[in-house]
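Troubleshooting log. The previous structure file for this entry was overwritten by mistake, so regenerating from the original sequence record. Sequence copied from the archived sheet and checked twice against the printout by T.R.
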Amino acid sequence: MAHILAVDDDADLRALLKTALERDGHQVTALPGGAAVTAEHCRWADCILLDVMMPGEDGFATCRRVRSLADCPILFLTAKNEEADVLTGLGLGGDDYLTKPFRVAELRARVAAHLRREGRTPRTRLRRGGLDFDLGERAVYAGETPVRLTRGEYAICAHLATHPGQTFTKEQLYEAVFGFDGTGEDSAVTEHIKNIRAKLRAVGENPIETVWGVGYKWKNG
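Regenerated output below.
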């Protein structure tokens, strides 16, 4: 059982989310708006479903406010399917998104996939060049300096680093790290890779190579 926080201004959709996820054995708290999300909610939640288009504090503003408080996946629920909007949400620290209208089965599968990934806690460390991966802590360090990656960014970065020299398509990366072959994998992975590269360049590292027309790989050596 997991704690799921569902935030949406549509009462019917809140009821649907609560019913569907409670059927899977989860405990669900549903809130009508982003401004209602507190630090206590963030500490309680194992996964947050966050509508984008809400009056007052919208989903992007809520994500920006709570991302440092919520140590769990944040999935956007959005009718805004323009790529720029999706990339904005991922850039703010979101891990994934579902485009409305979505199938309840896909919602349940997507939530389950993220929760499974959160439950994987190997206890070992891995060194790649000037970077150290703590696979139990799910953290990356450049020397003693932590590299501040979101959950989604870390998952992709760690998957590439544990398979150096192997090329993955965007679809393969999405399925490997999130455990679900979703419709939004292309833009999600592209944005995560962009964010990872920017953060690694800030500590003097540039290990991810684009294999044009195919995907990405972690450079050998």
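The radius of gyration is 17 Å. Archived copy saved in two places this time.
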